[in-house]
Amino acid sequence: VQLVESGGGLVQAGGSLVLSCAASGGAFRFDDMGWFRQAAGKEREFVAGVRWTGGSTYYADSVKGRFTISRDNAKKTVNLQMNNLKPDDTAVYYCNRVIQSSPIGPWGQGTQVTVSS
């Protein structure tokens, strides 16, 4: 599966963004999918995941209640709705196939999210 992330940008604290991940190739509909982020000078971390069976979701504590992950198997996309953004959310965001919160595929180019205070 090849993944292309989009939707990043510059937003003020308290604002919202929607990130999108488009997949090509592979089964996708049978893959659990997740979003990750990597801030400058820090390790990449898990943000949110959505299972292929039933579409149940799970989140890192730092984004719970503010971010919502969703998927559209027909369009082969995974979205991340981000509300009430904080400066600490500033990072490059990536999507990937996952097992629980661990990535299992190659990384795309990511999309930059910058939240100003």
Quick tags:
four-stranded antiparallel sheet, mainly beta, 117 residues, seven-stranded mixed sheet
Write up what this structure looks like.
The chain has strands at residues 2-6, 9-12, 17-24, 33-38, 45-50, 57-59, 67-72, 77-82, 91-99, 102-103, 111-116. The strands form two sheets. Strands 2, 4, 5, 6, 9, 10 and 11 form a seven-stranded mixed beta sheet that branches. It is globular and about 40 Å long. It contains no helices and eleven strands. The termini are far apart. With 117 residues, it is an all-beta fold.
Short description:
The chain has 117 residues and is an all-beta fold. The chain is built from no helices and eleven strands. Strand 9 and strand 10 form a beta hairpin.
SSE diagram, text form:
Blueprint: E1 2-6, E2 9-12, E3 17-24, E4 33-38, E5 45-50, E6 57-59, E7 67-72, E8 77-82, E9 91-99, E10 102-103, E11 111-116
Parallel strand pairs: 2-11
Antiparallel strand pairs: 1-3, 3-8, 4-5, 4-9, 5-6, 7-8, 9-10, 9-11
Mean pLDDT, all residues? 95
Unreliable spans are: none
What gross morphology would you assign?
globular
Task: Tell me the number of strands.
Answer: 11
Structural class: mainly beta
- Gap between N and C termini, in Å? 36 Å
For the largest beta-sheet, the strand count, sense and barrel status come to: 7 strands, mixed
Radius of gyration: 13 Å
**SS element count, helices:** 0
Strand content: over 45%
Helix fraction bin:
under 10%
**Would you list the SSEs in sequence order as H and E?**
EEEEEEEEEEE
